[in-house]
Specification:
heterodimer, A: 128 residues, alpha+beta, CPE0013-like fold, 2 domains, 5-stranded mixed sheet, 3-stranded antiparallel sheet, 34% strand, elongated, B: 425 residues, FAD/NAD(P)-binding domain, Immunoglobulin-like, 5-stranded parallel sheet, 8 helices, binds flavin-adenine dinucleotide
Chain lengths: 128, 425
């Protein structure tokens, strides 16, 4: 067992916040999980170690609406390593009002298979 | 968001609601469903939805809608439901007063100062951010000190970044969420400094907002100085001892142009004070009955104006209760009296509602003072006779505890006060 490496994670399943330990062999496969106090914790540890994913929420520029920013999210989780890149990619995006909740702003962002959608309606603002 | 301005303002309403966040909108809909004909929601902002509009992150609605939504999605759902349910929403209007005769005074961008009659009122003004600890920090008063919520609004609605390198005081959820938000916008976050020996926000936010981006969290540490002439140039931070006193010998400087202060919310209670409602010194919100009625007949309250909620889902549940009773009150059906006072005791900071009835089913919300594992929530008489116990695996101050109480549980209890405690097993 000398060639396994131990990685630590903090469980987010509940406020117990269990300190999880994952032993992985040189190929990256999970050999053992310790420190969990429920099944959810064990599953989470394996997921976090092998393929951590996150939902991305940010904003894009919008013209002609009440506010200059439109809140958006990915339609599902993307690999954690891509979160920053997704946000960077959205920095250049600019849309025009009106926009409806759920409207696709960027399809299949960075080839993740997830779309980026608006999370609220942004009607065209009355000109003053 | 949808524009929801009514064309006419009537002079008589069944129910007027102060505040158009999830609490106010939920209460208004419930009042309609309880039979109230004319229900008006008044909000001082240009659009209804409350604080949720700037909370663009996910984590809302798992209990209430059975799916995880972002703040704006949750807000739009409750607004659409209220409008579909026949509620009038007046934005750009500040509710100034509810008179003893329930004459409501408001100041509206569209209608000027107006006075309306209402049969019942619901207070749902939400919360404001604490700033006291920031004011107490010695040093200059340069530009660049913001509350975390204001920074959130600037970034998420206005697209304005508060600075280039930021230190955050306080590890409440808003501070944690902003650490991630600013990092994703290309701002450097120098660290989060927390006075207490534990993070004040949810573990999920510690992991996904700090660990994911290698942002350091300094526990038992606080900001003891702010430096800079026109703009913040650095803050001085120091560890604290067991009595939370800073140890200046071990202080160090953190170069930054911005300090965000995230030290908690308190109920927006200006109107509650003006109405001379009985306030709970711990929550700083009004004392309420199990029908969410305040100490004044026909004036109900719900949401963050009563006590600070970490989950909007519970705000919605409370709002439904308050609005339902306001709607019935408008029709002349006053809530039935409660017969038991709840008294927070060991490790319980407060309970809401403040009174219950042994005749009906209730959900009691409470917040603990200190984290505990393997504990028990105990209801007992003031002289120590145990009436009911529920085992809990853990409790932490950032997470509200809720206790469903059925009449059967109190069948053998004949007193008029119950102590509420959370103890180690
Ligand atoms: C930064 C942050 C992050 C959060 N994250 C989560 C999360 O991840 N998940 C979750 O479930 N919950 C979260 N919450 C909690 C949740 O959003 C709140 O508990 C909820 O929005 C409170 O609703 P409310 O209607 O009581 O108050 P608010 O949403 O604050 O609404 C109050 C409204 O009243 C208006 N108002 C006040 N005074 C007056 C007056 N005199 N006249 C007219 N209008 C007035 C205000 O303009 C405002 O629109 C978060 C809260 C914050 C601040």
């Amino acid at each position: 067992m000398s060639d396994t490496e131990t990685f630590s994670y903090l469980c987010i399943g509940c406020p117990l916040g269990c300190r999880l330990e994952v032993d992985a062999d040189p190929a990256g496969d999970v050999v053992e999980v310790r420190g969990f106090s429920c099944r959810k914790g064990k599953t989470y540890a394996v997921q976090e170690h092998t393929d951590p994913r996150r939902l991305v929420t940010t904003t894009v520029a919008i013209d002609g609406a009440r506010w200059p920013r439109l809140p958006v999210r990915t339609t599902g989780e993307v690999p954690k390593a891509l979160v920053t890149e997704v946000c960077r990619a959205l920095r250049g995006v600019r849309v025009s009002a009106p926009v409806r909740l759920g409207q696709v702003i960027v399809a299949d962002v960075l080839g993740t298979g997830r779309d980026v959608i608006a999370t609220c309606d942004a009607p065209a603002a009355a000109r003053t | 968001m949808i524009d929801a301005r009514p064309h006419v303002l009537h002079d008589h309403y069944d129910v007027v609601v102060a505040g158009g966040g999830p609490a106010g909108l939920g209460a208004a809909l419930a009042a309609r469903e309880a039979g109230a004909e004319r229900v008006l929601v008044v909000d001082r902002e240009t659009e209804a939805g409350g604080i949720l509009l700037q909370c663009i992150h996910a984590g809302f609605g798992l209990h209430h809608f059975g799916e995880e939504l972002t703040g704006p999605e949750y807000a739009q759902r409750v607004l659409e439901a209220a409008l579909d349910g026949g509620v009038d929403v007046l934005t750009d209007a500040y509710l100034l007063d509810v008179g003893a005769d329930r004459a409501v005074k408001l100041l509206s961008g569209e209608h000027g100062v107006a006075t309306l009659d209402t049969r019942a009122a619901v207070l749902a003004m939400g919360a404001r951010e604490r700033t006291r600890s920031a004011i107490r920090i010695p040093g200059e008063r340069p530009a660049g000190v913001f509350t975390a919520g204001l920074a959130q609004r600037l970034v998420n609605l206005h697209g304005v970044l508060p600075g280039r390198r930021v230190a955050i005081l306080g590890s409440g959820d808003i501070g944690l969420i902003m650490a991630r938000r600013l990092t994703l916008e290309g701002v450097e976050v120098a660290g989060v400094f927390e006075l207490l020996p534990h993070a004040n926000g949810l573990t999920r936010n510690v992991v996904q907002c700090l660990h994911d981006f290698d942002i350091p969290l300094h526990l038992s540490t606080t900001v003891i100085g702010i430096d800079g002439r026109d703009r913040v140039e650095r803050v001085t931070v120091a560890p604290v001892d067991d009595h939370r006193r800073p140890l200046p010998d071990r202080a160090w400087d953190v170069a930054c142009d911005t300090l965000l202060v995230s030290v908690g919310l308190i109920p927006e209670n200006e109107l509650s004070r003006q109405l001379r409602l009985r306030l709970d010194p711990v929550t700083q919100g009004p004392v309420v009955t199990s029908a969410m009625e305040t100490s004044r007949d026909g004036v109900f309250a719900c949401g963050n104006v009563v006590h600070i909620h970490d989950l909007v889902d519970f705000v919605s549940a409370e709002a439904t209760l308050a609005g339902h009773h306001a709607g019935l009150f408008a029709a002349g059906r006053h809530p039935r009296a409660d017969n038991v006072r709840l008294q927070p005791a060991t490790n319980v900071a407060y309970c809401v509602p403040h009174t219950i009835s042994t005749e009906r089913e209730h959900t009691v919300y409470l917040r603990v003072r200190n984290p505990l594992e393997r504990c028990v929530l105990r209801l007992s008489t003031p002289d120590g006779v145990v009436v009911h116990e529920r085992k809990l695996r853990y409790v932490v101050p950032p997470e509200m505890v809720n206790l469903r109480l059925r009449p059967a549980v109190l069948a053998d209890f004949h007193g008029d006060a119950l102590q509420v405690e959370v103890l180690a097993r």
